[in-house]
Amino acid sequence: MNKKIAFIGAGSMAEAIISGMVAKKIVPTNQIIATNHSNKERLSYLEEKYDVQTSQDRKSTASGADVVILAMKPKDIKVVLEELDEAFHKDTIVVSLLAGISTTFIEKNLSLPLSVIRVMPNTSAMIGESATTIAKGSKASKEDVVTVVTLMQSVGTTNLIEEEKMDAYTALAGSAPAFYYYMVEAMDQFAKDQKLDEAVSKQLMTQTIKGVAAMLENSEDTPANLRKKITSPGGTTEAGLKVLGEKDFQEAVVACLTRTQERSKELREDFEK
Ligand SMILES: NC(=O)C1=CN([C@@H]2O[C@H](COP(=O)(O)OP(=O)(O)OC[C@H]3O[C@@H](n4cnc5c(N)ncnc54)[C@H](O)[C@@H]3O)[C@@H](O)[C@H]2O)C=CC1
Ligand SMILES: O=C(O)[C@@H]1CCC=N1
């Protein structure tokens, strides 16, 4: 793709997307540029590791780009839009990764009627395995959406969604890797407690998750049916599941996702004031 891509913010999510894009060679590395608040070492690290450009001049970084990806924290949205507003040109596509922040708010804070597209990836973008949702703002053309979908497909799968559902999808895929990792941390603790071989345990846990993911993707069974096929009456799985039931595991997961969704809404309420 012959587009210049600028990242405003050079933290974990910017790195995950840069890493995925560079690996897929979606744009030449000299067309990718990142800037941040003040951490020069971080920019040098990205330059060295991914061979991308970096700059401490945020305005020129934005003005030289076709696609500007906002990758700072939601709390910084106002100050960044104020700083960059005059750097945008009439064809700039503004992509926001910011949890909670609406396209309407971004549009309202821009002088030009630009294409604003909201994207919720996850950190698996790093290895091309993000599950990304994309919602278009009111002024985004079909062509601009195609550009952003193409870019994001270089780091994983994409789904176009209605923006009103973005808070829920943020829970289900943006934040969710952390919830799966949390469960694996607990399994890892069990492996340590039982003095299992570290390498063998890691391989088993990883392969088990891959197998589960592949079954979910390829089997016609529901998750509940897949679970039942593992659960022999009076067997080991049934005994383990009984404990999860007693500890309200499923209620805890639903409560976790509900709170994550609510927090996304709160970020909007807090930082769009
Ligand atoms: N980490 C994740 O798994 C995901 C994060 N996101 C979103 O991505 C965004 C970034 O998240 P992380 O990378 O985790 O944060 P981070 O804290 O790792 O990085 C934030 C970056 O923004 C920069 N920054 C702060 N103020 C700035 C300013 N005024 N101008 C330019 N740069 C500035 C910082 O220097 C830093 O490089 C957030 O809005 C978050 O909601 C979305 C999906 C997943
Ligand atoms: O925790 C957060 O706010 C960000 C958004 C989704 C994943 N990380």
TrEMBL record:
<dbReference type="InterPro" id="IPR028939">
    <property type="entry name" value="P5C_Rdtase_cat_N"/>
</dbReference>
<feature type="binding site">
    <location>
        <begin position="71"/>
        <end position="74"/>
    </location>
    <ligand>
        <name>NADP(+)</name>
    </ligand>
</feature>
<dbReference type="InterPro" id="IPR036291">
    <property type="entry name" value="NAD(P)-bd_dom_sf"/>
</dbReference>
<comment type="function">
    <text>Catalyzes the reduction of 1-pyrroline-5-carboxylate (PCA) to L-proline.</text>
</comment>
<comment type="similarity">
    <text>Belongs to the pyrroline-5-carboxylate reductase family.</text>
</comment>
<dbReference type="Pfam" id="PF14748">
    <property type="entry name" value="P5CR_dimer"/>
</dbReference>
<feature type="domain" description="Pyrroline-5-carboxylate reductase dimerisation">
    <location>
        <begin position="163"/>
        <end position="267"/>
    </location>
</feature>
<dbReference type="GO" id="GO:0055129">
    <property type="term" value="P:L-proline biosynthetic process"/>
</dbReference>
<dbReference type="InterPro" id="IPR029036">
    <property type="entry name" value="P5CR_dimer"/>
</dbReference>
<dbReference type="InterPro" id="IPR000304">
    <property type="entry name" value="Pyrroline-COOH_reductase"/>
</dbReference>
<dbReference type="Pfam" id="PF03807">
    <property type="entry name" value="F420_oxidored"/>
</dbReference>
<dbReference type="GO" id="GO:0004735">
    <property type="term" value="F:pyrroline-5-carboxylate reductase activity"/>
</dbReference>
<feature type="binding site">
    <location>
        <begin position="8"/>
        <end position="13"/>
    </location>
    <ligand>
        <name>NADP(+)</name>
    </ligand>
</feature>
<keyword id="KW-0560">Oxidoreductase</keyword>
<comment type="pathway">
    <text>Amino-acid biosynthesis; L-proline biosynthesis; L-proline from L-glutamate 5-semialdehyde: step 1/1.</text>
</comment>
<keyword id="KW-0521">NADP</keyword>
<dbReference type="InterPro" id="IPR008927">
    <property type="entry name" value="6-PGluconate_DH-like_C_sf"/>
</dbReference>
<feature type="domain" description="Pyrroline-5-carboxylate reductase catalytic N-terminal">
    <location>
        <begin position="4"/>
        <end position="100"/>
    </location>
</feature>
<keyword id="KW-0028">Amino-acid biosynthesis</keyword>
<keyword id="KW-0641">Proline biosynthesis</keyword>
<keyword id="KW-0963">Cytoplasm</keyword>
<protein>
    <recommendedName>
        <fullName>Pyrroline-5-carboxylate reductase</fullName>
        <ecNumber>1.5.1.2</ecNumber>
    </recommendedName>
</protein>
<dbReference type="GO" id="GO:0005737">
    <property type="term" value="C:cytoplasm"/>
</dbReference>
